[in-house]
Amino acid sequence: MTALSSLTAPQQPYSYGYLDAHAKRELRRRMLKAIAVPGYQVPYASRELPIARGWGTGGLQVTLALVGPESIVKVIDQGADDSVNAANLRRFIARMSGAATTTDAVAATLLQSRHRIPEERMREGQVLILQVPDPEPLRAVQPDMSKSAQMHADADYGQMWLSLYEQLVRFKQYIQGASYPSLVNGRHIISPSPIPRWDTPKLHLASHLTILSAGREKRIYAVPPYTTVAPLEFSDVPFQVEDQSGRACRTTGVRNRFMNEIPQTDGTSQFELSDSGYAEKLANGIMPASTYYDENGEFYHAGILKPAVRPD
Amino acid sequence: MTHPLYTETEARVRESFLVLMHALSFPGRPQNLPAAQADDAFLLMAEALLDLETTCFTADMALDGLLAQTGARRADLASADYAFFPVLTDEHAASLALAKTGTLLLPDTSATLFIGCQFGGSQASRWTGPGIDNEITVRLSGLPDVFWRQREKAVSYPLGWDVFLVDGQQVIGLPRSTRVEPAAG
């Protein structure tokens, strides 16, 4: 006689990776289209998760659709592995997949990030998953989503250029800090999520695949490897990254990396490395991999970052 | 703490998807599907992407029955999200004029094509575009010239269809963003 239990699969409280098979398949279909049209925001279903929308659900869904038992996952929040948000997401991913976790950007196969790209260069085969609060770069110039979608369809970016020009007229420099609008593959303007300007050039002709996902806004877009990502700039006033010169990390002493500013009671500031995984390596005497910016602050793709020009 | 079971189906579907993702991220580089037998390749890819929310088309009778098992609805080529051609004849290639290329507002509503051919051979082409470090020379055979003419007509970036070329257990991605030119010499 056949026992009933032999005919059924073992009872599972959760699907592998939390999301059910249909959710994962839908997300995967959208990811492929996002890769095929770099920078175009693909609508997707965005399922409910046990964390609130706005706390990284977009990135989390992508990670859950990609993760497997052999994956090595790193999650960072503003560069830090140990913030509450990053630690909880990392623990949830590990619980739902059995994947190993790490703080080493070089060892990770999947790197989910809120608003930073590591200092060490990512390589082919790694996937960077950026959490996106607002995927629409045109929001400030066109709050109506159906109209901004039409502007993307027509590559009608005149208003973006106008807003840049107005910044130059009023402030003599581009004042947009994080999520600096960038043209991907010469066609679609993206918001690269609120990564600092320091990180924006790292997407240009990168070796790794970047997937950006907004859970609340239900949009997913991608920057494939070796794809041009050009921060918007006028030819006579080049785009600038945040000036890190004169800043030294108070624990490691390193310079020319993206720093967190720590205000002191006497009104001065001290600085600390934003990338905690990188700082950890330096503190433990582990040789880090090559970085995007060298010791002198030179970017690894020569000629991408140009000297500052202040218009008359 | 134990994690949810990584079932055989889960593993197969995920690994097939990762192959497709890498194939599309690095156009022109062959990727290996986790297929036990070469015949399974199309089915593995279908299983990774197709379900009742999608439509599919194939001219291959044997594959048609198997695709139905995914739950995907049959459709004609003009409306199918996914189309499978284990062998692409001249007539099939000519019919690709019908396949969806998406709209400027929603370029992701285009078709994805899975086409059988042979990797290697005399027909060399030079591919450039996203996912390709500078350029890559790809050698293919078994693809009718009509296919390339249809692709040229269909792809008006960001419109166009995305293709997975399949030889046995290997897949090469050819997204619409890739520019294909005959190799010099």
Describe the model:
The complex is a heterodimer of chains A (312) and B (185). Chain A is α/β, with parallel strands linked by helices and 312 residues long. Chain A has a domain of 211 residues: 3-Layer(aba) Sandwich (Rossmann fold), CATH 3.40.50. Chain A is 24% helix and 16% strand. Chain A is built from seven helices and twelve strands. In chain A, the strands form three sheets. In chain A, strands 1-9-8-5-4-2-3 form a seven-stranded mixed β-sheet. In chain A, a hairpin with a 3-residue loop joins strand 6 and strand 7. In chain A, helix 2 crosses helix 3. The longest helix of chain A is centred in the N-terminal third of the chain and has 16 residues. The termini of chain A are far apart. The mean pLDDT of chain A is 95. Chain B has 185 residues and is of the alpha/beta class. Chain B has a single domain, classed as Rossmann fold (3-Layer(aba) Sandwich). Chain B has five helices and ten strands. In chain B, helix 4 links the parallel strand 4 and strand 5. The interface between A and B is large, with 51 and 45 residues.
Largest interface: A-B, 51 and 45 residues
The shape of chain A, in one word, is: globular
The CATH topology of chain B:
Rossmann fold
Task: Describe the global form of chain B.
Answer: globular
Q: How many E strands of chain A?
A: 12
First-to-last CA distance of chain B = 60 Å
Please state the oligomeric state of the protein chains shown.
Answer: heterodimer
CATH architecture of the domain at 21-231 in chain A: 3-Layer(aba) Sandwich
Number of strands of chain B: 10
Structure classification of chain A:
alpha/beta
What Rg of chain B is obtained from the alpha carbons, in whole angstroms?
16 Å
User: Can you identify the CATH superfamily of the domain at 21-231 in chain A?
Assistant: Bacterial phosphonate metabolism protein PhnH
Terminal-residue CA separation of chain A: 90 Å
Strand order of the largest sheet of chain A: 1-9-8-5-4-2-3
The largest sheet of chain B is: 7 strands, mixed
Number of domains of chain B: 1
Calculate the mean pLDDT score of chain A and round it: 95
Overall pLDDT confidence of chain B: 94
Number of helices of chain A: 7
Proportion of residues in β-strands of chain B: 25-35%
